[in-house]
Amino acid sequence: MVMKRNKLVGISLSVIATVILAGWLVWQFLFPAPVAKWVFYGEKPSELRGYTFPPAKSSRNGKLESKPEIPDGDGALLTLWPDIKRCTLTVKSGQENISVTRFQESTPEVVQVEYIDENGMPSTLHVQLGYGVNFWTYPDPDANNDFIGWKFDNLAGKALPVRFRGGAMMKKVIDGTQYKRQTNGHWLYEKYQHGRVLESKEFSTLPVANSEQNRQAELALIDNANQWLSETLQDLSDTLSVPIPDQWLSTNSDPCQSVNTDM
User: pTM higher than 0.85, yes or no?
Assistant: First the structure.
C-alpha cells in the first residue's frame, strides 16, 4: 500500500508540474514578457514611455513590436535591454543623429558611439570604460574626405594618432598603424606615414602590450572623448529642447536609470 501510495503521489506531482508548465506556456503565448523598456523625449508627446515585445505570432516580418509605437520624428530615445545588460541612446535632429550604446555585460564596460553631423559626415568612438580609447575618428576640418583621431596600437600599448582617407565603408590608412590577419593565421603589422608603409612586421600571434604604464595618458584621452560627447549631446538637447542623459563614459554614473522612472 505504501509503494502504491508513493507511486500515486509521484504521478500527481508530475501532472501538477505539467499543468503548471502548460499554463506558463499559454501565458507566455498570450502575454509575452517585454524584452526592453524605453522612454522617448520629443515634441508630441513631450515624453512617452513603453515596452518592446518579441515579434507577434502573426507577424509577417518577424520584427520586434513597441507598445505604444515609438514616434518617428525628431527626439531622443533611451532603451534599456535588461536581459543582455545593454542600454542605447538614439537622438535624431533633422539630418543630425547619434547612437550611443553602453554594453554593461562586458568587463570592462564598453561604449560605442556613431555620430552623423548635419553635413552627413560620420564620427566613431569606441571606449573601454576606465581603460582607454580603442578607436576615435572624426572629420578633419582642414582636409576634405580625411578622418583623423586615435586608434589603440597593440605594440605601443596606447592609442596613437591616425589618419584615414575615403568614404564610410572604405577607408585607407594614411598615417598610423594597422594589423591584418593573414591566410596562415599570422598577423601583419604595418606602420604608415603619408600613405606609405614605413615599417612592416609579421607576428605569429597578435601582440599584446602592457598598457598600465600609459594609464594616465589613456584616461586623459577618455576625458577628451567624454567632453566631445557631452558637448555634442548638450547641443542636441538645446536644439530639441528635450532632456538627454549624459556621462556615458563615466564609470560612476548610470545614464540609463531614467528609463526606470515611474515604470
Answer: no
